[in-house]
Amino acid sequence: MKAIGQPINRQDGRLKVTGEAKYSAEWSLPNMTHAVPVQSTIARGTIESFDLVAARSAPGVLLVLSHLNRPPLAPPDDLKSVGMQLGESILPFQSNVVRFNGQMIAVVVAETYEQARYAATLVKANYKEEIPLVEMEKGRAAAKKPKESNGRDAQLVRGTPDSAFESAAQKIEATYKTPHEHHQPLEPHATIAVWEGDKLTVYDATQGVGGPKRALAGMFNIPQENVRVVCHFTGGGFGTKGGIWPHTLIAAMAARVVNRPVKLAMLRQHMTTTTGHRGATDQKMRIGSGADGDISVMRHDVLTDSNEVSQFFETCAFASSILYDVPN
């Protein structure tokens, strides 16, 4: 800062270093309850039934919410058209279908966090298990070529790259593989949801309040002006807090049922299964040049894993199309 003028103090610096900055999970509201999710223990199948007797009779338990008793949601036909910014296109608790290991299949709400966490261990799900496809190599033969991603052409071709590579004087050909990568910011995800009539306030760990505001208004069929999203500080995000994930909708659903504020604070292990990740990739790179070293051709083929619903994929090769002035 001294190179361009006088140094400027960060307005939030003192609050952060003294611990006075209040993050989403640190708010304490009157009459607040606590929620802990129950996650699937299979990767694919259906829930045949729940055994909830022990959980419901545990001390302090107010609610065990699942697809069997959740309040209605009102998603539009086209989520993208209204800028919903949902991390998952399949909404929580809408059916008995399990699509991945760790999927939230129920949530326990209790007077204290400890009571909710204990009762969540008592929820038993009976499954009809199916064989999942979880290894990218086993799905290689059935791989599909997407036509677009976020409005851009996903199959970019310029010139004649194959013939240009064959005739190139100098060639480099290599394969690079990257593993699954999970977001792990210092602050895990957390949501506190409060209803006052048909007005909803959420204290949410987010990188932007506009997306959650639109999503919650759409999901609960209320005007956007009836939704208030509060986030004074964000403890890191790296993209994972750019959308809205199931726990935020679940907290709002649970708060509507118990008619009290509900806090749902994610644990670190929840962050590896319920708030998105970067898929594994297998990238084959071919670069050719003339004898003078000028690059004449580049081909970047990417195989990445996704899911069977929203078909999100990493756009690794997009940068290659604009990185150099290459005719092929």
Characterization of the model:
This protein has 328 residues and is of the alpha+beta class. The protein has a domain at 24-129 and 183-272: 2-Layer Sandwich (Aldehyde Oxidoreductase, domain 4). The chain is built from seven helices and 17 strands. The strands form five sheets. It has a seven-stranded mixed beta sheet with strand order 3-5-1-14-11-12-13, sandwiched between helices. A hairpin with a 5-residue loop joins strand 16 and strand 17.
Helix content: 10-25%
What characteristic shape results from the CA principal axes? globular
Q: What does the radius of gyration come to?
A: 24 Å
CATH architecture of the domain at 24-129 and 183-272: 2-Layer Sandwich
According to DSSP, the number of beta strands is: 17
Q: What key phrases describe this protein's structure?
A:
single chain, 328 residues, alpha+beta, Aldehyde Oxidoreductase, domain 4, 7-stranded mixed beta sheet, 3-stranded antiparallel beta sheet, 7 helices, 17 strands, globular
Q: Secondary-structure map with pairings?
A:
Elements (H helix, E strand, L loop, with lengths): L12 H6 L14 E7 L5 E7 L1 H4 L4 E6 L30 E2 L5 E7 L2 H8 L3 E6 L18 E2 L2 E2 L7 H6 L3 E9 L2 E2 L7 E7 L2 E6 L5 H10 L7 E4 L15 H13 L3 E4 L11 E2 L2 E9 L5 E10 L15 H4 L5
Brief digest:
Helix content is 16%, strand content 28%. It is of the alpha+beta class and 328 residues long.
